[in-house]
What does this fold into?
Amino acid sequence: MDNMIGKMLDNRYELLEVIGNGGMAMVYKAKCHRLNRLVAVKILKSDLAEDADFRRRFRDESQAVAMLSHPNIVSVYDVSRGEIEYIVMELIDGITLKQYMERRGQLNWREALHFITQIMKGLSHAHSRGIIHRDIKPQNIMVLRDGSVKVADFGIACLSNSAQTMTQQALGSVHYISPEQAKGERTDARSDIYSAGVVLYEMLCNRLPFEGDSAVSVAIQHLSSVALSPREINPEVPKALELICMKAMANDIEKRYPSAEAMLADLEEFRKNPDTDLHFTIKSLQTPPSEDATQPLPNVQDVSAHRTEPVRKKDERERPAIPKWMVYTGIVLAGLAVIIALFQMILSSFSNDPQPTEFEVPSLLGMTIEEARADARVDGIFTIEMIGQRADSEFAAGEIVEQSPNAKSMVKANRVISVFISTGVKTDVMPMLTGQEYRTGVIQLKNMDMDLNIQRTEQFSDSVASGCIIETIPASGGTLKAGDDVVLVVSKGSDTKPIPVPTFTNIDIETVRQQLSDLNLTIGQVTHANSETVPKDCIIQQSLAPKTEVAPGTVIDFIVSDGPIVPEPPQPGSDTEPVQPPDETPDDSVDEGGETEEQP
It folds into this structure.
């Protein structure tokens, strides 16, 4: 069992199981406890991690790859900065293109076109940001359940060029490497195009263009052999798609597609019209043999058995004798030619302007292509070739922002200067980052490839969790230009403390309202009642007992006194009217029998 299973990286990523094992790294399925999601974690193997230079380059390349953001490239979420070197990537629900081909067998050309188009779109995005994969192969291409494709392993592949020796570990990749990689020469975007062409060839033909018993034998075939055309193996392959495949696989780097965009253009043209004429042939893509190439030996049977006498042609036997004066004249002229040649050699030895054998590459940055081609240092010596465009805040639109080879380099042959042209200052829209974790927001901004100056400020918030973004400056939807300042306001969490409830009884209700406002508490329902002991408009009772600790904003209900009960005066004619007392000296009296008794 792997001893890394169950470990927690940076108190965030829990390693669950091994899902891949490569030459330079192990890949684990892991859980991100901060965002509660499953991810893939690629950890640099311990023997390579001991090399400080390798660790540094691994980290630099990984951070560069984290800037890529494209639907056809596996997303990189995080890069380690601790003792263990690792990359956190999205976990893909799918299989490799190699596994897909093994399961399906022969792919039809429409399916191959679907896959190679997505692969080239991903490579085009990476190349536009100066990142070369250098290890394109079906094992590094993921096929998702919905049929979409993602190119993987950028972070590791960018470093694979550091090892120039051909070892047995390279056998898995050597079938797809370009000739310049096999020779250990400088690679560029066209090396990825060659490898993508081999992948397309394998999809169309259900076999590799070159195979052998060892990595070295396969590499030699890439250098010196020409693969069978796809239609010779699978006649159902359309002619135009065959030409696209063979141009991508051209042994001569100058005859390949100069960029992924150029290959995508032909793929799109073919998709619209499978019978399109691409204006080149397989023969035109092949490199003719050099003049000093080895010539075949003549057949032994062609050599005459009569070696003692030279064979002479009929006109040689019948040729008349040359006059002696013509022979003497020829000798004199030949002597003069020799003297003139020697004299020129002597003069050239004293000359300060010999024919150069090497040429210094001039700096073309800031020039337009027309200005560069008209430059005296370029005209008649170098060829300018545009291989891509990209936004740049330093150079105006149409100016050269990058060249290869670099200025002041010395070259003997292949005098082609490849250049990138500026499209001007890059602009984009500020994304919605409110509520996202700070690190996620930073990665999203960096993936925009705008060279933004990201600044962080913090403040307390009761509504936004600690470590998450409260607001951005500029706000979402605003316009961003390359190099702009972006401020992320990050929550420090709540700064509230529990509030002890004071005693409000016998205090006037208006005074209580003011006290509640000062304490950040809320007055709730207010009811009224009579009280013999509490003055009018003062608090009789509160819903929370004094000294109870509550959170800010807590609601408290009150009963307010209306004072003591006051009896109302009686109304005339009411049942409560007092009875008048009888007169003490009445004039008449009535006996019980109802008769009036006369007084004496």
Remarks:
- Confidence is low (pLDDT under 50) at residues 159-172, 289-319, 349-353, 592-600.
